[in-house]
Amino acid sequence: MMPPEQETTATTTTTPSTITIPSPNLNRPPETGSGSVHAEPSSHNNANPVCLDQVLAEHQPQSTPSLKYSSNSIFRESLRPVTLKFEDVGYTIKLRSKRGSCLVSSQHEAKTTSSSSRVVLSGVSGIVRPGELLAMLGPSGSGKTTLLTALAGRLPGKISGAISYNGQPFSSSMKRKTGFVTQDDVLYPHLTVLETLTYAALLRLPKKLTKEEKIEQVELIIMELGLTRVRNGVVGGPLLRGVSGGERKRVSIGQEMLVNPSLLLLDEPTSGLDSTTAQRIVATLRGLARGGRTVITTIHQPSSRLYRLFDKVVVLSEGCPIYSGHAGRVMEYFGSIGYAPGFNFMNPADFLLDLANGIATDIKHEDVTEFHGRLDHHDDQNSIKQHLISSYKKNVYPALKAEIQENHKIPLRTSSSRDSENQWLTTWWEQFMVLLRRGLKERKHESYSGLRIFQVMSVSFLSGLLWWHSNTSHIQDQIGLLFFFSIFWGFFPLFNAIFAFPQERPMLIKERSSGMYRLSSYYFARVAGDLPMELVLPTVFVTVTYWMGGLKPSLITFVLTLLIILFNVLVSQGLGLALGAILMDVKQATTLASVTMLVFLLAGGYYIQKVPAFIAWLKYISFSHYCYKLLVGVQYSENEFYECEFGLHCRVMDLPGIKCLGLDNKWWDVAALTVMFVGYRLLAYVALRMGQPH
Ligand SMILES: Nc1ncnc2c1ncn2[C@@H]1O[C@H](COP(=O)(O)OP(=O)(O)OP(=O)(O)O)[C@@H](O)[C@H]1O
């Protein structure tokens, strides 16, 4: 609903024409009572009355943010205010097939754009100062997320135009001053709200703060974001019911607020939320902005109540700007170029979205049918969009450009202050320990899942029964059991490890983009965290099956058998990690892994003894082959005899299956497994590093 003072302006209807407005500075706040949509927000807010009412009551002209909050509040003043300027930002993506492109490109610049690329953003400019809340509006697919990601310094590929932060390009120190909340909340579903925020605090807050001080910050965030009621509830996700969508969104915002960011960017923080919750979130953002932060958010369909909380708006239509400036002057501007809402009490955001879609509601109420009939007229819509874009270029852009190019005083910094900003906030060991604890907590349900234990134990007992008390008179069966050990404990850890990195990729990208930790500390924590369960299950399995299956009743042989299998598990896990990290796609990785393991199984030396020479080398790359060879080697000695026929004893070494395997050179087999153990893990690390955003 449009505020009363706006309605008077909005009723004036003019046909789109070549009206020029006298070079307004739309980035300056409107004069009081000048037909602005910018009004004091109402203070209705029941959910967190004290805090948010304070925030709303705090509403001051943004040039002089007056702060009444204690130094502990999340609404406290930002330590390093950031002025963000972006000029003529453009972004083009390469496409596999020819598709539509930015309106301007498709109609006017098509010649200069190759058929396999698409313009997502073109000529977008703006300026946001500390204390301001800027909203990006536009229809779905208009490029809001792309622009936001570009402003957060996280867009891969080449961006044209200029983006500056206090007059400087994006840097690693700016990265740590920036909070970025993505549209989809990237959170660990099994952690509670308190745990999620605590781990984030331990990783993101500087080492000069004690653990208690970091936890104090977490408590503060929980209180100020109204999460006290759900502090011990699990966050949840698509497969696990947890806290509500709005609460989850607030947890995401809280994670970013912990570091008191100077620049906060949020992608559709209100999508899917009821209007009261949306109002609360935007009011919180406004409060944060008033603390001297620069806050930018994309928003889909804000109510007029929400719209009033924005200081500035950028309106995009197919990647091209049709407005960039003060939110309160938007109706005045569009009115002056011939567009005004046809309905009384129209939400300004609806009006802007209609315009961005090329729909001018400059019609009387009784013409509604005709209006809807016209929605299909693409030519009309395109010409309206064209007119809006050219009007922006003529009327808005020159003043905006002059303002962006105004000399900005860059504060002098000594090299020591720059260095200290670029250093990691916590030590390698601290990062490793926090990530290890967090990983163990998050994955304990998965690692110790009853299903997984049942799977291993049932196979263990079943094979124990099948090989029940076998002895050397059935030596072929016994070596079959040893081969089964090497294959089962090759497949199982391999397929478990494949999921590790592809599943964690969004979290890794998010956290590494905010400079939270080193890749090496994450990697070692992840690998170490998986070890306990990866080693406990095979230990139990081997203990049960070994003694049930009647293998050599010697403690030393049993321990050696167990150690060989555990080593095999680690090598196989390494291969799984490497495949997952290289392909980053579970489907592709599992397909490749199953082919690899089948080859290893066939080349392992159990099924085929006479392999053609040209392909015999395959066994040398099969870790199952080395494992099997070692298992046979510790089970039987070269001078051992077995009962080959009734009353007749033969040398173990003369059994064809063992003879072609060879029981000598055990240390070479151990060395080959060691090379694979290190090599696969190194490969996984390098693949992860290469897939990281810079
Ligand atoms: N990497 C990419 N590959 C293919 N298309 C892309 C890529 N990045 C952006 N696009 C396209 O660019 C357009 C703008 O995308 P963007 O996500 O920025 O839109 P949006 O305004 O945020 O949409 P929504 O409101 O639906 O989230 C879309 O049509 C999208 O498909």
TrEMBL record:
Record Gene3D superfamilies? P-loop containing nucleotide triphosphate hydrolases (3.40.50.300)
Q: Which InterPro entries match?
A: AAA+_ATPase, ABC2_TM, ABC_transporter-like_ATP-bd, ABC_transporter-like_CS, ABCG_dom, ABCG_transporters, P-loop_NTPase
Name a GO CC annotation attached to this entry. Answer: plasma membrane
Positions of region (Disordered): 1-48
Q: Name one GO molecular function term.
A: ATP hydrolysis activity
Its localization reads: Membrane
Q: List the membrane topology term(s).
A: Multi-pass membrane protein
**Per the database record, which ranges form the ABC transporter domain?**
84-343
The family annotation for this protein states: Belongs to the ABC transporter superfamily. ABCG family. Eye pigment precursor importer (TC 3.A.1.204) subfamily.
Which protein are we looking at? ABC transporter-like
